[in-house]
Design a protein that fits this description.
This protein is mostly helical and 69 residues long. It has one domain. Helices cover 59% and strands 0% of the residues. The radius of gyration is 14 Å and the shape is elongated. It starts with a helix and ends in a 10-residue tail after the last helix. 4% of the residues are buried.
Length: 69
């Protein structure tokens, strides 16, 4: 049985999608990640190094202050 990966992904729960994206992030293009992460960005961020995200945003010209800074 051949299954379309997009169909399978849509059937995952929010938590399962978040864990999947986090564990496979190195294999995906930026566009592919952005397409799926947009709806789950805050869930994904809890598995991310927030200092790295802050530095990225600062590099884009945003002012970022982390709670522990």
């Amino acid at each position: 049985m051949v299954t379309d990966i997009n169909s399978v992904f849509r059937q995952l729960s929010r938590t399962e999608k978040t864990k999947f994206v986090n564990s496979k992030i190195d294999y995906a293009s930026e566009d592919a990640v952005a397409e799926y992460v947009a709806a789950y960005i805050f869930d994904v961020l809890k598995y991310t190094d927030l200092k790295q995200v802050a530095e990225y945003l600062r590099g884009k010209g945003y002012t970022v202050t982390l709670n522990n800074e």
